[in-house]
Amino acid sequence: MGFDVGLALKSLPYLLSGAGITIGIVLSALLVGAVLGLLIAFGQLFGGKAIQRALNTYVNFFRSQPELLLLWLFWLGLPAVGIKVGAFGAALLAFGLRSAAYQSQIFRGSIQAIGSSQLMAARSMGLSLHKSIVYILLPQTLRLSIPGFTSEYSIVLKDSAVAYSIGLAELVTRGGFIIERTFDPTTIYLTIAGIYLCLTYGGIKVLHIAEKKFKIPGYH
Amino acid sequence: MGEINFLYHTVLPPLIKGTIVSLELIVASAPIGLLVGILSAVGRVYGRPGIRHLCLLHQIIFRGIPLLVQLFILFYVLAAWGLRLTPFFCAITAFSICSGAYHAEYIRGAINSIAATQVMAARSLAMSKWQAIVFIVLPQALRKAIPSCSNEITYLIKYSSLAYMVTVPELMTEAKVLTSRYFKPIEIFIMAGVIYWVLVTFASRLINAFEKKMEIPGLKLTQKQL
Amino acid sequence: MNTKEQPDVILKAEDIHKSYGETKILDGISFEVERGECIIIAGPSGTGKSTLLRCINHLVPPETGRIWFNGKEVARKNVNEIRQKMSMVFQDFALFDHLTVLSNVTIGLIKGKNMDKIAAREIASEKLTDVGLDRWMNVYPGELSGGQKQRVGIARALAMEPELILFDEPTSALDPELIGEVLEIMKKLAQRQMTMMVVTHEMGFARSAGDRMFFMEGGKILESGPITQMFSNPREKRTGEFLHKLEELYGKG
């Protein structure tokens, strides 16, 4: 059973729209993860002891959970307590909360690398804490975090395939549908593999270009 | 009270049974994956052009495709070609090759961070290129790569859950079966989650202890990959 | 110093050429070195001095040209044999960070010369005592100062009992206070008639321990001759300019 180029080409539009859903879930999860991750990072660095401990537990726990487990927990568990959540919602929660835990560590590292002295300098110029964070700390944190964010993109992209198990109509699920009809796993899975390679390395390339574009001259 | 009884007597035993299978998967895949990583890294840095390209391909392909897809290709595509692998063997193979690609990237970075003059010094002492690699480069590169490689092994513990997708009766599978039987998804999955948390924490402690034991004064380990 | 009838040539190079891509690093180097000589190689940076040393022990094979060591031509097939009798000391010390000082010195003997561990340890301790590091044998390179590291490098080179030692800017990476201890050992070696080729800009050392000097520029040996002559009465204007500049910067020693 070889590679059926005809089938591959015919399936491409259907698969690519599945890839679109994949990208959708990945970007949404990364966004949720970024916003939440930043908040967690600030909490871990500037919050009180109790907050720090709670957040550390959160991060610790979520970093040890398989994505598959989180997916099912939300997809089967939430309806059991009356919260209606579709496959996309469950995936967003699972991937987003997990990504937040990892991104918080990336941001924390960046903020620590920038150092507290800049924040102090901003405060001593009369800037409120809020303004100091937004105008001084945040821009640098975001720039410094791009490399970590790039690897996080790569990870979430590959993890998104697991949403197949809850029936989310992304790339792998759609591949499964085609295989059910055509009985040709070789062509379809190899095509899917190729699409993932493009998404992974294409995305990384885009983020590298962004990194270069936002680089501050002279900054290490 | 009945709840706790239920959890302890009905849920826990099958979960433990599944955990043992998970551990079998992990304990088999971790060292094989590390070995694959070492060979791939050394091949990429020191091999002849043909080997170098093969290893580069390994690292690019298996780090660019989801593990799930790799698993499916191994399981379904090979079966379509007449080569039927058992789910267990299939899972271990996929985990080892995939995890090996990540190890290879970290070890390669560590190898490149070792001053080329050390290899020159070894060769000027009449050691062959391979003696230099085995006795000078690898002992240092592997130490430097410990934080990243141990991180990867922790990932392996979590990704072993994917073996569910090829019907290996490990922890995830047992949890799923229980939920379809008893309709208490939150309790069951949280228990499974706690087990994973215990596994990961235990593994981290073990690895930290190992790191300390391997420490050499003046030889700095690389930053942990997140 | 050389009043022998028949010169005992230990190393001979003939028309060595080496390029890295477009850049010509060595452009027709030829010379002879007699046993027991201490040759100083001086010249502006980037003129191929390190590359020349690395061609001699074939770490970097020359493109064209031939090298003979003890009458035998240096080629890939006999490279390990040659390296057992020729040692190198590196600018960045190149110590093996994961091995103790003692193991750094024994590993070449055990793996390169196939010596047994006990014999290797004896020789290693002897050489480490020679360089004053006998109390540091079970310490790791990361715990040593630069000067100590280089002394280990020299002990490692000596342990192979070579007939020729190549020194590639051995003190350039050292803090000023630590340079002295390394040069002292090198002077002693020269006095003991070890054949040495030293790339350096330490002119004080050159004057007190060197026999002849090769002045290299642009990939060629511009001038060579006895040390005193090179300083007082060089044939080439460029030689005199450079050497006096070095003395200004690094002192007369």
Distance between the termini of chain B: 41 Å
Helix count, DSSP H or I runs of 4 or more residues of chain B? 8
The fraction of residues assigned to DSSP E strands of chain B is: under 5%
* Shape type of chain A: flat
Give the class of chain A from helix and strand content and strand pairing: mainly alpha
Chain pair forming the biggest interface: A-B, 45 and 45 residues
| Element order of chain B: H for helix, E for strand | HHHHHHHH
- Secondary-structure element series of chain A: HHHHHHHH
As a percent range, the share of helical residues of chain A equals: over 70%
Low-pLDDT segments, ≥5 res of chain A: none
Low-confidence stretches of chain B: none
Summary?
The complex is a heterotrimer of chains A (220), B (226) and C (253). Chain A has helices at 5-46, 49-62, 67-80, 87-114, 116-124, 129-159, 171-182, 185-213. By secondary structure, chain A is mostly helical.
Structure in words:
The complex is a heterotrimer of chains A (220), B (226) and C (253). Chain A has 220 residues and is mostly helical. Helix content of chain A is 81%, strand content 0%. Chain A has helices at residues 5-46, 49-62, 67-80, 87-114, 116-124, 129-159, 171-182, 185-213. Chain B is an all-alpha fold and 226 residues long. In chain B, 81% of the residues lie in helices and 0% in strands. In chain B, helix 1 (2-46) crosses helix 8 (185-214), helix 3 (67-80) crosses helix 4 (87-112) and helix 6 (129-159) packs antiparallel against helix 8. Chain B is flat, with a radius of gyration of 21 Å. Chain B starts with a helix and ends in a 12-residue tail after the last helix. Chain C has 253 residues and is α/β, with parallel strands linked by helices. In chain C, a hairpin with a 2-residue loop joins strand 9 and strand 10 (220-226). The model of chain C has no long low-confidence stretch (mean pLDDT 91).
Task: Give the tags.
heterotrimer, B: 226 residues, mainly alpha, C: alpha/beta, 6-stranded mixed β-sheet, 4-stranded antiparallel β-sheet, 25% strand
What's the SSE blueprint?
The complex is a heterotrimer of chains A (220), B (226) and C (253).
Chain A (H helix, E strand, L loop, with lengths): L4 H42 L2 H14 L4 H14 L6 H28 L1 H9 L4 H31 L11 H12 L2 H29 L7
Helix pairs in contact in A: 1-2, 1-4, 1-6, 1-7, 1-8, 2-4, 3-4, 4-6, 5-6, 6-8, 7-8
Chain B lengths: L1 H45 L2 H16 L2 H14 L6 H26 L3 H9 L4 H31 L11 H12 L2 H30 L12
Helix pairs in contact in B: 1-2, 1-4, 1-6, 1-7, 1-8, 2-4, 3-4, 4-6, 5-6, 6-8, 7-8
Chain C lengths: L8 E12 L2 E12 L3 E5 L6 H8 L7 E6 L2 E2 L5 H5 L2 E4 L11 H12 L4 H14 L15 H14 L4 E5 L7 H16 L3 E5 L3 H7 L2 E6 L2 E7 H6 L4 H14 L3
Parallel strand pairs in C: 3-8, 3-9, 6-7, 7-8
Antiparallel strand pairs in C: 1-2, 1-4, 4-5, 9-10
Helix pairs in contact in C: 3-4, 3-5, 4-5, 5-6
